[in-house]
């Protein structure tokens, strides 16, 4: 009997098969790993023809309706994490494609958030670049974290972890989201901002920790950026489209804010000619928030478990 074919997409670092024990699938599933991102829809469909199982690493490759409709053999779509905004769930359900996910870590994104905040505050990239190139000795004057105001937009699992570190630094921590209450903010040891506008106007560092949805897309817009202090920094390790990209580029070019720390973008990988690659006040990383050994071990172990369960006809971690 022919075994089902499985494609693992976007394994950029080539670690999918070494981050978990795939031997349980030997002889049961034919697994092929794709390390290079396939952006062209026709090329993607051709590469996935005849595959019953496809594994997605987060939202690196979108699966909208027009892709799903061209993959008649697809039966199982596994995504790392239990949420993937780039998959058309309704279209998958209509076509009988089961979408399942895995666990993950919240701590890794919170840690990267602080790498960006501290990197911006102390001019790490500028100073390190100068030192490596025998440039000027000391060019920047750092921003103090102690006594500064940290604005947290979204006080969920990750936002709460980020807020806790801010408190440890001696920062005044304010938080806001549409449904956040004063009691919930107080339980996390922080204060509730009266509004999004107050949060933006008050924060010395504004960090975003919201789920991308129709409600949050473009939530931070030109008006919000105009409210920010010229000495303030914006940090986004959540999802790129939560911030109006054009408005942020304009604000950075005009020097209306001091800078931005970004790990997420409207289009990923970030196009080679994108302004974020060259703006001097941007500290950018290639969506590394979830990319740690511990996180990957959870991702790939549970990917294997999901595939094994599917092949055995057992329940999988279905995303609803």
TrEMBL record:
CDD domains: PGDH_like_1 (cd12169)
Enzyme Commission code: 1.1.1.95
Pfam families documented for this protein: 2-Hacid_dh, 2-Hacid_dh_C
Sequence ranges assigned to domain D-isomer specific 2-hydroxyacid dehydrogenase NAD-binding in this UniProt record: 115-289
Biological process annotations from GO: amino acid biosynthetic process
Limits of the D-isomer specific 2-hydroxyacid dehydrogenase catalytic domain: 24-316
PROSITE patterns in the record: D_2_HYDROXYACID_DH_1, D_2_HYDROXYACID_DH_3
Gene Ontology molecular function terms on file: NAD binding; phosphoglycerate dehydrogenase activity
Keyword set, alphabetical order: Amino-acid biosynthesis, NAD, Oxidoreductase
Enzyme class: oxidoreductase
Family: Belongs to the D-isomer specific 2-hydroxyacid dehydrogenase family.
Stated name of the protein: Phosphoglycerate dehydrogenase
Organism: Pseudonocardia dioxanivorans (strain ATCC 55486 / DSM 44775 / JCM 13855 / CB1190)
């Amino acid at each position: 009997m022919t075994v089902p074919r499985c494609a693992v997409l976007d394994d950029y670092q080539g670690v999918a098969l070494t981050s978990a024990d795939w031997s349980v699938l030997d002889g049961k599933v034919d697994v092929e790993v794709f390390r290079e991102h396939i952006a062209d829809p026709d090329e993607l469909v051709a590469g996935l023809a005849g595959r019953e199982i496809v594994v997605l690493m987060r939202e690196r490759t979108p699966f909208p309706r027009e892709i799903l409709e061209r993959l008649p053999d697809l039966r199982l779509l596994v995504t790392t994490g239990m949420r993937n905004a780039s998959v058309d769930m309704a279209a998958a359900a209509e076509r009988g494609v089961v979408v399942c996910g895995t666990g993950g870590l919240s701590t890794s994104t919170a840690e990267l958030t602080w790498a960006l905040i501290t990197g911006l505050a102390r001019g790490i990239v500028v100073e390190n670049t100068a030192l490596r190139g025998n440039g000027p000795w000391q060019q920047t004057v750092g921003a103090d974290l102690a006594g500064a105001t940290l604005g947290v937009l979204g006080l969920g699992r990750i936002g709460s972890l980020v807020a806790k570190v801010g408190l440890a630094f001696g920062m005044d921590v304010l938080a806001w989201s549409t449904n956040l209450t004063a009691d919930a903010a107080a339980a996390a040891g922080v204060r509730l901002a009266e509004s999004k506008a107050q949060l933006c106007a008050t924060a010395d560092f504004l960090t975003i920790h919201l789920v991308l949805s129709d409600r949050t897309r473009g939530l931070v817009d030109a008006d919000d950026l105009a409210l920010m202090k010229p000495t303030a920094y914006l940090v986004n390790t959540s999802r790129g489209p939560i911030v109006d990209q054009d408005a942020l580029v304009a604000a950075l070019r005009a020097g209306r804010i001091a800078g931005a720390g970004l790990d997420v973008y409207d289009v990923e990988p970030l196009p080679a000619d994108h302004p974020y690659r060259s703006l001097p006040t941007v500290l950018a990383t290639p969506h590394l928030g979830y990319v740690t050994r511990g996180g990957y071990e959870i991702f790939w172990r549970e990917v294997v478990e999901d595939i094994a369960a599917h092949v055995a006809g057992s329940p999988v971690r279905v995303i609803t």
